[in-house]
């Protein structure tokens, strides 16, 4: 007996002894039960009851005042009722796609059997017949297009749920409004306008046969891309109508003898006037609300945002002057890039974003939210000067302005000038962006304290960046424009910083609220008095002795800071320029720079500099704002050493102390717990040793 024969005999004995067929049937039934249970749960938990509402409505975006702001382009066309669709079209679709549509309950047993026979004979299901209109609606609305048995089973169970929820006419209406007809057109109404120039209500038999034929392959059988293929497919559909006695043989022959008269009357109105803002909304919703992007765009959500159209239009308009960036604006990838963001400091809401110059790419790189660059001197108020005021310095405190070596590194001012006296007032050091003074203060105040203060401002500093160069904004990881604007919002909002966000709340197609962020995280970064003193000092940036003099708006007060970085360390050429400005109504951060390091210099490519651009931008933002005054004096014009605001809120002081204590615990807590655990272990060992040393009686 061969080895194979011995193996066969052994297997047969085991199969007989353990009743193999019974176990096989049991396992098969168990798997079938689990599979059917899964499919039932899937069907029951799918939002079938809101399908019609979702198909009728587009996902709409609303601005900060709950006014309509735009819609997302999606797989939807103009939704019309069944009464507005020609009976010719209705009959043609039912006859061709699902002739027993009004008889079955979501799936066609005869059609499935025929498809199964074709699968056995031809090894494929070509010829159709296995999928009903209801199943096709379920597939288009809820499932992927993968040709798998799993998807077909899901399609079947969802079709049953749809049949329970809707009438046949409602299902046909949804199907015709959600079908794709090629050339970027969804729905029978827009398809009729696209190919024939009139409404779907007046489609004749010929036109109905053409559109129905396209359902099998929108890119293959549409008369624009392949006229002859469309004719052939139309004739097939026409013959089906004749065979079903829907039209007479004479009418069928006439239809097949004529051509297709094409006329395009379709207008695709853009529903997204603020593309970078709308893109950022998608990113935030996917990240925080956990709504998949495809669902968000296609299922009729209502998204309420912090978009301020006045601010957004002001920002957009400031970029309509390409000459400011050294080109004519025609290059899809300009040499000088730029981005801007505007935040409402009173709520943290992101009011406007501009993600980049050149050709907009859908869901592409958004420099306002995604780009990280070294902030240069814009970090000085955050990392150094706020901390200095909290440590006891005041507006007029004198600080050194001299080149000094710190372990071999001797920073100099950007213009290589130091005061002859070797010192200057704190406000002047900030207004003139003195590197020497900033590094001195950071060295005196301590890196750890600065890192913690930056964390309060919402900026985390990695360990490799924790050195004195941090005072000059030399950060390898960098910051985003949104992150920088959010940090400066604390100054504009009397020391309180809200986490920045785009979306306030979201409702689904039925009006049910599915996400809310009306109470963003709140941080007490500094007291009102410190915030006021910092603002007085930063009012000098654009209105007094500062580096941004002349770059502010044509009227009104603007506080803030400027910053720049080099193309390479030690080079006089500039790679990045930052301008930060704020009022009680808005915070704006604008960046211009080079995407890649190289031989180019921003100074040569953008000869007018950032000043003119920021002047135009902030003037327009002032026009769009409430123009709330600071009621503060520039530090250079103050005799007193501090603003000493009346009515200091004890809640602010307590809140500030509480936030500081919380952050101290967050940083030092793990270390303290480790020390306690180590002490407890040592104490336990000593007690154990003591017990072991006691002689037994």
Report on the structure:
This protein has 24 helices and 14 strands. It folds into 4 domains: 3-45; 75-256, Biosynthetic peptidoglycan transglycosylase-like (Penicillin binding protein transpeptidase fold); 350-358 and 368-637, DD-peptidase/beta-lactamase superfamily (Beta-lactamase), CATH 3.40.710.10; 654-691. α10 (205-214) crosses α11, α16 (380-390) packs across α18 (435-445) and α16 crosses α19. The strands form 4 sheets. The chain has a 5-stranded mixed beta sheet, with helices on one face. The protein has a 5-stranded antiparallel beta sheet with strand order 5-4-14-13-12, sandwiched between helices. Helix content is 45%, strand content 10%. The protein has 697 residues and is α+β, with helices and mostly antiparallel strands. Residues 38-45, 125-129 and 144-151 have low confidence and may be disordered. It comes from Suicoccus acidiformans. This is Penicillin-binding protein.
